[in-house]
Amino acid sequence: MFDTASLGAHAPRVLSVLRMVSGLLLTLHGTQKHFSFPAREGPAPDAFSQMWLGGWIEIITGLLILLGLFTRPAAFLASGTMAVAYWQFHAPGNLYPTLNGGDAAILYCFVFFYLIFSGPGPWSLDAALRKRA
Q1: Which of 47, 70, 74, 116 has the largest count of CB atoms under 10 Å?
Q2: Does the pLDDT value for residue 82 go beyond 90?
Q3: In this predicted model, which residue has the larger pLDDT, 6 or 29?
Q4: Do 85 and 105 contact (CB within 8 A), yes or no?
Q5: Mean pLDDT confidence for 21-39
């Protein structure tokens, strides 16, 4: 039914697409916290609070991951941030992610964890810089 060899040949580029989409979505979580884009309910986080810092980490690492620049260190920081987000803000309400709203944080955590090991894929600034070197 599926030609798995043919599908496997596209894996590196699909990895790049996964990285770009994940980075964009993480960036939007941060911009929502700091710039109310997309619009959010409630006030912005207090300056220098943990939520405020998390929002900046989401913006900066999200953009780096989107671009595929310093992907592995950015993914390391983003993965850890999402682990903290889950255990500190979601899990205390209920351990089950589908009930505590933390399923996205877990998924981000493991996608970014994977990027630490896989790297950014061929469509990235990291790959372009590696070619130039």
Answers
A1: 74
A2: yes
A3: 29
A4: yes
A5: 97
Instruction: Give the residue from 79, 74, 54 showing the smallest Cα distance to 64.
Output: 74
Q: Among positive and negative, which fits the CA dihedral 44, 46, 47, 51?
A: negative
> Can you read off the two tokens belonging to residue 88?
């500190």
**Close Cβ partners of 20 (under 8 Å, ≥ 6 residues apart):** 65, 66, 68, 123
Q: How far apart are CA 53 and CA 123, in angstroms?
A: 29
In this structure, are residues 81 and 73 in contact, taking their beta carbons and an 8 Å threshold?
no
For residue 73, whether the previous peptide bond is cis, meaning omega lies within 30 degrees of 0, is: no
Tokens describing residue 1 = 């039914």
pLDDT band at 1 (very low <50, low <70, confident <90, very high): low
